[in-house]
Amino acid sequence: MTFIKSYIIRLSHCDPTGHVFYPNYFFIFNALVEDWFYEGLEIPFHSFLMDRGLSLPTVKLETTFISPTKMGERVDFWLTASHLGNSSMRLTMGVDCAGEQRVRLHRVVVCVSQKTGKPAPIPPDLREKVQEFMRG
User: Fold this and answer.
1) pTM for the full model?
2) CA angle 105, 37, 22 (to 5 degrees)
3) How confident is the model over 56-78, as pLDDT tens digits?
């Protein structure tokens, strides 16, 4: 399954040429993961962090910038989960505009205990929701 969220590219996302300043893509991709938790998995992301004392830092990130995106364009940010390990997940993410690929991103995140700073098993409820999502 793919989680898709439509965004309008705003002035605050852009450099002086009116194109998305590439670090801002990562800000939006991070928001996409939060939206996926809230809307796609129906697990409150703030609860995952604050109540459970877990985090989901990125340990590997590979990005390909295919074509520029301009202020005012409506684009689709999307996410798929391609692997679920004991404490890690592999996410493939992208930006498309009217059928044109703009950005592709491969990201590995690891569930980490905020208390110890060490990897922790993905909680059973999150594991179940991600597996359901992966099955479509």
Assistant:
1) 0.93
2) 30
3) 999 999 999 999 999 999 999 99
Bridge partners for 91 per DSSP: 81, 107
Neighbours of 96 (CB within 10 A): 18
The set of long-range contacts for 7-16, using a CB threshold of 8 Å and a minimum separation of 24, is 7/74, 7/75, 7/76, 7/77, 8/72, 8/73, 8/74, 9/69, 9/70, 9/71, 9/72, 9/73, 9/74, 9/75, 10/71, 11/71, 13/71, 14/70, 14/71
- Taking the C-alpha atoms of residue 131 and residue 62, their distance in angstroms, rounded to an integer, is 23
Contacts 24+ apart (CB under 8 A), 12-16: 13/71, 14/70, 14/71
Query: In a 3-state reduction of DSSP, which class is residue 69?
Result: coil
Torsion, CA 30, CA 32, CA 35, CA 39, rounded to 10? -150
pLDDT at 136: 86
Interatomic CA distance for residues 66 and 101, integer angstroms:
7
